[in-house]
Amino acid sequence: MATVPTIRLNNGVEIPQLGFGVYQVPPEDTAEAVGAALEIGYRHIDTAEMYGNEKGVGEAIARSGIDRGEVFVTSKLNNGFHRRADALRAFDQTLADLGTDHLDLFLVHWPLPTIDVDYVETWKAMEEIYASGRCRAIGVSNFQPHHLRRLFAETEVRPAVNQIEVHPYLANDEARTFGAEHEIVTEAWSPIAQGKVLDDPAITEVARAVGRTPAQVVLRWHVQRGDVVFPKSVTRSRMEENFALFDFELDEGQMATLTALDRGERTGPDPDTFDFVPG
Question: 75-112 pLDDT, tens per residue?
Fold first, then answer.
């Protein structure tokens, strides 16, 4: 089994660079999918309150027989719980649904800058959660540099992670560079742009040159750039393919080829305008 490298967060916690994402995995299928991922060797699971499948993640970990301390579990605060009291209750519910006494990483899922609950208030609630000792690290998701600057100015704990959309068509280097300058690790969601990049001629040519699939080439590009990545699939063969990233490398020219594909194309919402709150 391959050894997945870890990245040290700004508070000293080690996070596996490759994880398994459960976005859009139906709740009834989650335990089976996560169980298969754990069998393959994944030890980092990324879920969210919004996904509705935290219980399945917890069931899979419990059934696996793997010590809880060996599995890095991330979840994210749902958009309807940004007020302090709501955030604290939502975190308690996440622990209950996962069947665990702690999280490894808890994120604010979206900044929601257009709604009436300021994300600074939300982050202060996250600081309370962190201070309680029930979460080993806290971070944000989909925050732009200007959102982070406000947190720096008005709060005490610097986010350990910023989970943002990154793929060859959206290198998102402004946010990534800002994070690196401030010891905030970038996690890349939609790492293969929902499959849109896999037929790109430049990527398929690199894949042929290194004898790998286009998906493996793109995920390896992420890894070599220093991002944490968690591809999602419910197909075991694809999970295994996505895990096989650590026995080959892209050279500088191949890395540059993928980076040059950047065209600022999002597959998801713009964090500056997204305001969805579940009813």
Answer: 999 999 999 999 999 999 999 999 999 999 999 999 99
Query: Distance between CA 275 and CA 11 in Å, rounded?
Result: 30
CB contact set of 243 (below 8 Å; sequence gap of 6+): 2, 18, 40, 41, 42
Which amino acid is located at 95 in the chain? L
The residues assigned a catalytic role are 51
Q: Enter the tokens of residue 5.
A: 């490298």
3-state secondary structure of 81: helix
- H/E element holding 21? strand 20-21
Residues 6+ apart with CB under 8 A from 90: 49, 77, 78, 81
**How far apart are alpha carbons 219 and 246 in whole angstroms?**
10
For the domain covering 6-191, report its CATH number: 3.20.20.100
DSSP 124-162: HHHHHHHHTTSBS-EEEES--HHHHHHHHHH-SSPPSEE
Written as one string, the DSSP assignment of 212-236 is S-HHHHHHHHHHHHT-EE----S-H
All structural domains of the chain with their residue ranges: 6-191
